[in-house]
């Protein structure tokens, strides 16, 4: 795992917590922030996954 993957997963988890807190408190803004964090985390993890695939391909050469 590389740094982008770890940070992406962490941001996704943070987003899930924010969204749950928003659900419990009825705070729509917090819910939306949580969803946005989850999307951002997914993107960052995807970048990390791509980097990892490129690294593996290079290592095979």
UniProtKB/TrEMBL annotation:
The chain positions of domain CsbD-like read 4-56
Disordered: annotated span: 1-61
Q: What is this protein called?
A: CsbD family protein
Q: Where is the composition biased (Basic and acidic residues)?
A: 46-61
Pfam hit, one: CsbD
Would you say which domain of life the source belongs to? Answer: Bacteria
- InterPro entries xref list: CsbD, YjbJ_sf
UniProt lists the family membership as follows:
Belongs to the UPF0337 (CsbD) family.
